[in-house]
């Protein structure tokens, strides 16, 4: 089994909205002391005040800023002590056809979605290994297993995060430190409307953020490396069995969704 959240210290990124805001009360409700981090101080403070239990903390930060991931880790440790769990949930969308995509947009997407989790892992893992206790949770995306039309930068960042998680899990296989990869599908968050991205091709049903929040908590306390929420593993298995058919189908759907 995994790590019990009762009495655990958890650093949760991307906590000011969406999946992170839904995950905070779930984690705290299972007995964890949670450090919230996100860009919007007012939202963090409101969420902090609503959490059950004592000892929680909030740190406002932009993880894309130079040095920010390491600074957040240091501030979290100062607030609650050694970290048992890091939930790498912060993410940013980037919907732009590759023919219109700028290098700056790619860099920003990778900085938040990939490099911040990598840097926070390197900052927190030594303590976990030394204490023989810990869990690194990477919230990727179904777009980390399936290519999405007009989302090459986003998919690159989430595929990279999934690959990082797999390789880290292998390196830590004989260690008591756990690694979990959570792959959300289409979730009802601000990611669909955030400025700076084109309109999404997808316009189907959206799952509530609490679905993924619960999956994250269950993953920490469970023993499975990879968790889909909702369970769309079958789509990924089909893609890997017939990549050409998958690409043709997605391209056809994108043509139908174009204005």
How is the secondary structure organized here?
Elements (H helix, E strand, L loop, with lengths): L8 E4 L5 H12 L3 E6 L2 H10 L6 E4 L7 H13 L4 E4 L14 H29 L2 E6 L12 H20 L5 E8 L24 H13 L4 E4 L3 H9 L1 H15 L2
Parallel strand pairs: 1-2, 1-4, 2-3, 4-5, 5-6, 6-7
Characterization of the model:
The protein has 259 residues and is an alpha/beta fold. It has a single domain (9-234), classed as Rossmann fold (3-Layer(aba) Sandwich), CATH 3.40.50.720. The protein is built from 8 helices and 7 strands. The protein has a 7-stranded parallel β-sheet with strand order 3-2-1-4-5-6-7, with helices on both faces. The protein is globular and about 50 Å long. 42% of the residues are buried.
General form: globular
- How many helix segments? 8
The percent range for strand residues is: 5-15%
Query: What value does the Rg take, in angstroms?
Result: 18 Å
- Per the CATH scheme, the topology name is Rossmann fold
N-C termini distance: 49 Å
Structural domain count: 1
Q: From N to C, what is the helix and strand string?
A: EHEHEHEHEHEHEHH
Backbone structural class = alpha/beta
Spatial strand order of the main sheet: 3-2-1-4-5-6-7
Name the CATH architecture. 3-Layer(aba) Sandwich
Helix content: 40-55%
CATH class: Alpha Beta
Low-confidence stretches: none
Calculate the mean pLDDT score and round it. 94
Total beta-strand segments = 7
Q: What composes the largest sheet?
A: 7 strands, parallel
**CATH superfamily, please?**
NAD(P)-binding Rossmann-like Domain
């Amino acid at each position: 089994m995994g790590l019990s959240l009762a009495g655990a210290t958890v650093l949760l990124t991307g906590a000011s909205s969406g999946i992170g805001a839904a995950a905070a009360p779930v984690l705290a409700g299972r007995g964890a002391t949670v450090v919230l981090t996100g860009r919007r101080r007012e939202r963090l403070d409101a969420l902090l005040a609503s959490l059950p239990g004592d000892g929680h903390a909030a740190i406002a930060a932009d993880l894309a800023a130079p040095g920010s991931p390491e600074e957040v880790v240091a501030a979290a440790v100062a607030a609650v002590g050694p970290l048992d769990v890091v939930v790498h949930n912060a993410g940013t969308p980037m919907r732009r056809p590759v023919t219109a995509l700028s290098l700056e947009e790619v860099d920003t997407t990778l900085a938040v979605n990939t490099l911040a989790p990598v840097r926070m892992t390197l900052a927190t893992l030594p303590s976990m290994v030394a204490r023989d206790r810990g869990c690194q949770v990477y919230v990727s995306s179904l777009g980390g297993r399936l290519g999405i039309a007009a989302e090459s930068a986003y998919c690159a960042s989430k595929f990279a995060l999934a690959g990082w998680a797999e390789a880290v899990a292998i390196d830590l296989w004989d260690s008591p430190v756990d690694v979990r990869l959570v792959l959300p599908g289409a979730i009802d968050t601000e990611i669909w409307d955030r400025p700076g991205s084109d309109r999404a091709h997808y316009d189907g049903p959206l799952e509530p953020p609490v679905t993924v929040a619960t999956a994250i908590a269950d993953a920490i306390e469970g023993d499975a490396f990879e968790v889909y929420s909702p369970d769309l593993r079958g789509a990924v298995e089909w893609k890997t069995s017939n990549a050409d058919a998958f690409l043709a189908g997605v391209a056809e759907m994108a043509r139908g969704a174009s204005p």
